[in-house]
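User: I'm writing a tutorial on reading structure tokens. Could you give me a worked example: one chain, its sequence, then its tokens, then a sentence or two explaining what the tokens reveal?
Assistant: Sure. Here is the example chain.
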Amino acid sequence: MALAYCDKFFEAAPCIYGPEDLQLIGVTAVFLAAKVEEVFVPTIKVFSKSTNFSSSVRHICQMERDMMSVLSFHLHPITLISWADYYTKQWDEYADIANLHSLTEVHDCAFRQFTLHSYNRYRTFINYLDAVAIDYKAHEF
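And here are its predicted structure tokens:
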């Protein structure tokens, strides 16, 4: 998600940022993504420390304001993972309606249940999705 923030930011931001600002922009994007995705968000001091304090807390906060205004506060970009979440949720609803759980040997054909088997199925699906996204020929269709 941080990469999507950086892409959108560089696409829409005025050209006032130079190469010396890349680390600050990157750590700020990771900080924003952590705020959106994580349950327990590390403090901003942890992110400053990750840059060996070359990006101060004040600079990260200022860049966060700049990024938020450039991104127009749109912090939920559509990514491959969001599509995967949507379609696996649709599959689970279909499987419940069609009663597919009773037709399979393992009685668990869902992606998003709180079982180890379901979790492993979801992780395998995401791994395949990552492999397809990395393959440069996948974008030629």
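What the tokens reveal: The two ends are 24 Å apart (CA to CA). The mean pLDDT is 83.
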